[in-house]
Design a protein that fits this description.
The complex is a heterodimer of chains A (160) and B (706). Chain A is α+β, with helices and mostly antiparallel strands. Chain A is built from five helices and five strands, in the order ββαβββαααα. Mean pLDDT of chain A is 94; it is low at 155-160. Chain B has 706 residues and is α+β, with helices and mostly antiparallel strands. Classes of the chains: A alpha+beta (160), B alpha+beta (706).
Chain lengths: 160, 706
């Protein structure tokens, strides 16, 4: 049996005694019951499973468990703190940046990684940063507005 | 049709216990313009349940489902309005067949039009009952009382007040509405006509919202099923022995149902890879390119949907006539959430959590497949991750239920994206042949329209044409077996997208030939006041400047209009065409919509924007490619959905018409997306696009022909 995989998940240490070649998406969704991260295509084409790994947006369906060993993983469940929504979550809610909501966790996590790297992205940069995330309901315009409100408002990408 | 709700009603009242229950049966004929639905198998009445519990909790029960269209919020708004309660005082339960009234399905932009009146009637009736209880309590007539935020008070003395909860205490009233309660008038609206925060917003931005694939039960298994490589291929031999030897893998092999199951979806996938299955080849020889000839040659006898005057008289009156044929391919729904279900069999009862637009249809299908009475099956619909018509059918629920019964364990069946592209019920491919003509004054005098494959929706002739004939061959609900090489079905205003693509370009062709501006030509040829109002509104919002001839500058502006779900819509689009590559960028879309009373303006705008964004896909890129029963597009790498960089600036205009009950909002704005982009491409280049989607390759070919 290989060594357990240890990593930080939503600011908490996690130790998993399982096959490290398993895909992060399914480990999150089954073993850890964190179902906010969604399956949409399984081949990294839709962005529904986006999580943030050491500050970078990655596709959980293309990430092995062993790839996150010793690293920090943030999922949609880790954004709100003590019942307070992250400014990006507030903005998505406020601007109607969702409809069916299925792509929303991936959208917000892509945006979260983007604003950490670029605290005040231009609209063009926001569009570029979300290009890998599909939304079938057509909330695109409001999603861009939501992110722009947060970042141009100078709130930055974190609670503080 | 026998009333399918009787059993539900008895159970329902038993389950809820005390308080006040209002059951509404609204005869379908009382809802304007919806009588035709009965012919489509809808029951004769619409039901709504409302419960005011002894602790004051108010619950609205609806067989409708929330798939992003926002009806969780707008239905609750309607209940709050006529109940006289605050929006947040009402809890809504949707799509649960054990507690909600029967509903045929969430489709056709019908929730607001059809179920809305029942909700409002139930809420208004509850308000009457509660007001009468207060009248008894205070010893005053009903007319001396007023209601505000769930409190009844004496108008002349506001200190004499009692809450709905206090009134419901100790009551066991089950009331089926007979007296017609008065609904709040538009000018008195406090909750309707406003855009409160969506009730699903926090759940959806935090990842807490549960979809069918997110439900977890102890001991549950994740199933993968053996699938044919092509439509029409039949399983001839299967060897599951290698899969069965894998640790933790369970195999089910029962005729048409061959599945591998385990507690880990990835292990199930590996086990599926170890199954050896052989199939007969498909007999289908149709392809993406040969389908159009087939749709015409194999067409069933046409139904005449509309006619006036005579085609011969029309031909004789023409100064110029136009004989054109338009083509459209198969389009997928591609909701971000694939079809998913979890089934659990316990004590003879089957419970299925399913991503479906038809919980009651799913219950019937599961019951049939299991040979159980429908009462022993419960379908619960969590949040649905997009439907667009594609989740009207729900075979995954039956698959999960059968496997759960066989294995005795909870079983999840979640289609992969490839399964989703294979088993989707596509928007049908179609051919539209139109012969039309104008007289010397630019009046349309002939409209001879024949649609093959797409059906009648959106083929309405709202232009004033003295000689017209609309023929429909192969309406998708009634197309003969084998007409389409795989399943087709409801989509977002399915055939209307094809019919408007053909009709509104045909109109543009005539406008140009008449030497008239496209907006002026349309206004000169229709006296339909609602159509005139949206055309004028979109022209004004867009800053339309009349142009009789196409600009041909590489930048263009198009116009298109239509009617869907009782709603009138007109769009203007600005495009930039790269004449070297054929690439089309839609820069700006302005959409004017008149939909009667607007229940939730922001919600209506979100639907309009969604329609524009989704419509870009079929206009520019989406077409399911296939060959001999095989699907050639099985994921988003080759089946391309609109992405952020494709998005135009979208502006929405709601044209007021408060004299008309609320009409449909989920679909109308999408129906013209193909036509409006095509007309803009013509303005930009002089090229006419006869086939959707308008890919760069096809745009280039069309430009070269000019």
């Amino acid at each position: 049996m290989p060594d357990p995989v240890r990593f930080t998940l939503n600011d908490r240490p996690v130790t998993l005694d399982t096959d490290p070649s398993r895909t992060l998406l399914w480990v999150l969704r089954t073993d850890l019951e964190l179902t906010g991260t969604k399956y949409g295509c399984g081949v990294g084409q839709c962005g529904s499973c986006t999580v943030v790994l050491d500050g970078q947006a990655v596709r959980a369906c293309q990430t092995r468990l062993r790839d996150v060993a010793g690293k920090r993983v943030t999922t949609i469940e880790g954004l709100a703190r003590d019942g307070t929504l992250h400014p990006l979550q507030e903005a998505f809610a406020e601007h109607g940046g969702f409809q069916c909501g299925y792509c929303t966790p991936g959208m917000i996590m892509s945006a979260y990684a983007m604003v950490q790297a670029t605290p005040a992205p231009s609209t063009a940069r926001i569009v570029e940063g979300l290009e890998g995330n599909l939304c079938r309901c057509g909330a695109h315009q409001r999603i861009v507005e939501a992110i722009a409100t947060v970042t141009h408002g100078g709130v930055g990408g974190d609670h503080d | 049709m026998t009333n399918p709700t009787m059993m539900d009603r008895r159970d329902f009242v038993k389950v809820l216990g005390g308080g006040i229950v209002v059951l509404i049966r609204l005869p379908l004929e009382s809802i304007a313009d919806l009588r035709g639905l009965q012919q489509r198998g809808y029951p004769e009445d619409v039901n709504a349940y409302l419960h005011i519990a002894e602790d004051g909790r108010i619950t609205l029960f609806s067989g409708k489902i929330e798939m992003g269209q926002g009806v969780m919020t707008s239905l609750t708004q309607m209940a709050a309005e006529d109940l006289g309660a605050a929006l947040d005082a009402i809890h809504i339960v949707m799509g649960d067949t054990d507690t909600c009234p029967y509903d045929a399905g969430t489709w056709g932009s019908l929730t607001t039009r059809m179920f809305g009146p029942a909700v409002r009637a139930a809420a208004a009736q509850a308000r009457l009952i509660l007001t009468d209880l207060a009248a008894q309590r205070f010893g005053v007539p009903r007319s001396a009382l007023a209601v505000e935020n769930g409190v009844v008070f004496v108008s002349a003395d506001r200190s004499r007040r009692v809450s709905y909860g206090e009134l419901a205490k100790g009551q066991k009233i089950t009331h089926t509405v007979d007296e017609k309660a008065v609904l709040r008038a538009v000018d008195q609206f406090r909750v309707m006509g406003h855009s409160p925060d969506r009730l699903d917003r926090v759940a959806k931005v935090t990842g807490a919202a549960k979809y069918a694939g997110d439900i977890r039960l102890p001991g549950m298994l994740y199933a993968r099923l053996v699938r044919p490589p092509a439509h029409g291929a039949r399983l001839t031999r299967v060897d599951t022995s290698a899969a069965g030897r894998m640790p933790g893998v369970m195999v089910v092999n029962q005729g048409d149902l061959v599945a591998v199951l385990s507690s880990d979806p990835e292990r199930s996938e590996r086990a599926l890879g170890a199954v050896n299955a052989e199939f007969t080849p498909s007999a289908s020889r149709l392809t993406t390119e040969t389908i159009f000839d087939h749709l015409v040659s194999a067409a069933p006898v046409a139904t005449v949907r509309d006619s006036a005057g005579s085609v011969e008289a029309g031909r004789a009156a023409c100064a110029q006539s136009f004989d054109l044929t338009w083509y459209d391919g198969y389009v997928a729904h591609a909701p971000m959430e694939p079809h998913t279900a979890l089934a659990n069999f316990e004590n003879g009862r089957m419970t299925v959590w399913s991503s479906t637009q038809t919980p009651f249809g799913t219950r019937a299908a599961v019951a049939r497949a299991l040979g159980q009475p429908p009462e022993s099956v419960r379908v619960i619909t969590p949040y649905v991750g997009g439907g667009f018509g594609g989740k009207s059918a729900g075979p995954q629920a039956v698959e999960a239920a059968r496997l759960a019964k066989i294995t005795g364990r909870p079983v999840q069946v979640a289609w992969t994206r490839a399964e989703e592209f294979f088993y989707d019920t596509f928007r049908p491919a179609a051919v539209v042949k139109v012969v039309s003509g104008i007289d010397r004054a630019g009046r349309i005098v002939l409209w001879d329209y024949h649609v093959f494959g797409a059906g009648a929706r959106g083929s309405d002739v709202f232009y004033d044409v003295p000689n017209k004939r609309v023929r429909v061959s192969g309406e998708w609900g009634g197309a003969p077996e084998g007409y389409h090489p795989f399943a087709v079905g409801p989509w977002r205003a399915p055939g209307a997208n094809t019919n408007r693509f053909a009709a509104e370009q045909q109109i543009d062709v005539m406008a140009r030939a008449a030497g008239m501006d496209p907006l002026a030509f349309r206004l000169a040829n229709t006296t339909d006041r609602r159509m005139v109002s949206v055309l004028e509104a979109v022209g004004k919002a867009a800053g339309w400047t009349a142009a009789a001839a196409p600009r041909k500058t590489g930048q263009g502006r198009g116009l298109a209009c239509g009617i869907d779900a009782g709603t009138y819509v007109a769009l203007v689009a600005d495009v930039t065409v790269n004449r070297a590559t054929g690439h089309v960028k839609v820069d700006r879309v302005i959409c004017a919509q008149e939909m009667g009373v607007v229940v939730n303006p922001e919600g209506a705008r979100m639907q309009m924007e969604g329609c524009v964004a989704m419509g870009l896909g079929y206009a520019l890129a989406e077409e399911l490619r296939f060959e001999n029963g095989r699907m050639l597009d099985l994921n988003f790498d080759t089946y391309r959905l609109p992405r952020f960089s494709w998005m135009p600036r979208i502006e929405t205009v709601l044209v007021a018409n408060d004299g008309l009950a609320p009409q449909g909002g989920g679909e109308p704005a999408i129906i013209n997306m193909g036509a409006v982009v095509a007309n803009a491409i013509h303005d930009a280049t002089g090229a006419r696009m006869v086939r959707q989607p308008m890919t760069p390759e096809r745009v280039l070919t069309a430009i070269r022909k000019t």
